[in-house]
């Protein structure tokens, strides 16, 4: 197993899944911790990766619902059992569903980042994805 670990939330589809593939293509080998709200969805995503990426040996599925403190705590414990530290944390999980949007796309990102902060190695990278949908949603809120 690689000594560098990258954790990606919301990684079983969309932009998160593309991040998984991009990191697996790097010449500097990473082990990807693919986070998904369900293990089944994560495993389905791993099974669909091209064989050239050596995914079965370089990807672990972690169940993580970023809106659930209990799920975050369980995910941190799972990661601690797999990785001595994280080199990359990608906060990608997000939604566009009314009032839940802000709590998921902001509060949950903060909670996940704070929970995994102790596992981040020196020189590690935190990336948070966003879209114009978030900006449009915030503009629609009353003052």
UniProtKB/TrEMBL annotation:
Keywords: NADP, Oxidoreductase. The keyword Oxidoreductase applies. One of its GO terms (molecular function) is oxidoreductase activity. The keyword NADP applies. Gene3D superfamilies: NAD(P)-binding Rossmann-like Domain. Belongs to the short-chain dehydrogenases/reductases (SDR) family. This is NAD(P)-binding protein. It comes from Triparma laevis f. longispina. The lineage of its organism: Eukaryota, Sar, Stramenopiles, Ochrophyta, Bolidophyceae.
